[in-house]
Amino acid sequence: MTPVIEAEDLRFCFEPGREVLRKVSLRVLAGERVAIAGANGAGKSTLLWCLLGLHRAEGRLRLFGLPPRQARSRVGVVFQNPEDQLFMPTILEDAALPLINRGIGQEQARERARQALAAVGLESEAERPARRLSLGQRKRAAIAAALACDPELLVLDEPTAELDGRAVRLLAAVLERLPVTMLIASHDLAFLRRLATRALILRDGSVLAEGDPERLFSNEALLEEAGLI
Ligand SMILES: Nc1ncnc2c1ncn2[C@@H]1O[C@H](COP(=O)(O)OP(=O)(O)O)[C@@H](O)[C@H]1O
Ligand SMILES: [Mg+2]
């Protein structure tokens, strides 16, 4: 089966001579939930942007066997700040918008948006604007907007940032039930431990370790080296 993501020796710098990603390799297979863990500044967001083709990295990169830009419609992205994705009068319209932008009719778009909101436990909030919702609900609404197009890969950047414990547990429970391949950048080890089927630890733009989340995240020396504790 073609891997969902196949990246080999990715290198990227914002400024000449200062590499932010140094030979990062990564493979994600269908059905996996892969964590990119690392301290602030480790390069997690930059790696996600490179994988999405939003930054042009050196190295070999394929999504579903294609150059990333050609695979864009198969990927749902949830950026760190849900406000970037939610600005319509209701979250139903926020979730329907990407479908309408793809030429899907109003009725069908709204129906699929409703299903996506139900998948994240927000069906009863569908007619409310994002600004009236809690941060945890807004995060889930942004996930619904990404899910509405039925992506084969869901990419999430710091999905638990600034959430309280209860909202984090609810979010993990919602994501756990979604039958979609995931790539999750986060420094929230408890969250990743619950959700990820495999983990990569980034430090200073390099892969420090890769493997079973339970094993990596219980290795205190490794976490210390990664700046995660
Ligand atoms: N737009 C930018 N211009 C220059 N340097 C940047 C930019 N964005 C991020 N960086 C630098 O790249 C490194 C990795 O950042 P980032 O990918 O945001 O890390 P993380 O998501 O793991 O916190 C940091 O040293 C950061 O300062
Ligand atoms: Mg980041």
Helices, strands, pairings?
Elements: E1 5-15, E2 18-28, E3 33-37, H1 44-51, E4 58-63, E5 75-78, H2 91-101, H3 106-119, H4 135-147, E6 153-157, H5 165-177, E7 181-186, H6 189-195, E8 198-203, E9 206-211, H7 213-217, H8 220-225
Helix pairs in contact: 2-3, 2-4, 3-4, 4-5
List keywords for this structure.
alpha/beta; Rossmann fold; binds magnesium ion; 34% helix; 8 helices; 229 residues; binds adenosine-5'-diphosphate; single chain; 2 domains; 3-stranded antiparallel sheet
Explain the overall architecture.
34% of the residues lie in helices and 26% in strands. The protein is of the alpha/beta class and 229 residues long. It is built from eight helices and nine strands. The model has no long low-confidence stretch (mean pLDDT 97). It has two domains: 142 residues, 3-Layer(aba) Sandwich (Rossmann fold); 68 residues, no CATH class. The strands form two sheets. The protein has a six-stranded mixed beta sheet, sandwiched between helices. Strands 2-1-4 form a three-stranded antiparallel beta sheet, covered by helices on one side. Bound molecules: adenosine-5'-diphosphate and magnesium ion. Magnesium ion binds next to α1.
Largest sheet: 6 strands, mixed
Q: Roughly how many Å apart are the termini?
A: 37 Å
Outline = globular
What is the N-to-C succession of helices and strands?
EEEHEEHHHEHEHEEHH
Give every kind of bound small molecule, once each. Answer: adenosine-5'-diphosphate, magnesium ion
Structural class: alpha/beta
State the fourth-level CATH superfamily of the largest domain: P-loop containing nucleotide triphosphate hydrolases
Q: Tell me the name of the CATH class of the largest domain.
A: Alpha Beta
Total number of helical segments?
8
- Gyration radius from CA atoms, angstroms: 17 Å
> What's the CATH topology name of the largest domain?
Rossmann fold
Report the uncertain regions: none
